[in-house]
Amino acid sequence: MQALRPGFDQPNSNEAAVRAAVADGKPVVYGAVPEQNVVSTLVGAHTYSVLGIASDGRFRVRNPWGVDGHDRGSSADGELRLTWAQFHQSARFVWIAG
Q: Which of 21, 42, 48, 77 could cross-link to 61 by cystine, CB 3.0-4.6 Å?
């Protein structure tokens, strides 16, 4: 298992590593920092699975509790899309299985 700390390591190589892992079908887990996040819909101090990369290049992450900060009745419950800047700035850790 590979551990990345986006806030402290080299952000450009981390982005490439996460994108490559997702493309290879490896499980990737992302932990949001406990403080107020860059993305208001993220739950702080919470872990998300990285589902993939959207067609616009954003990271698709999912809260296993099914909460995405939007209305509970929406069809996107639990899933958020983050730019690399949002992903990197709000991450406490990233784990890549492999």
A: 48
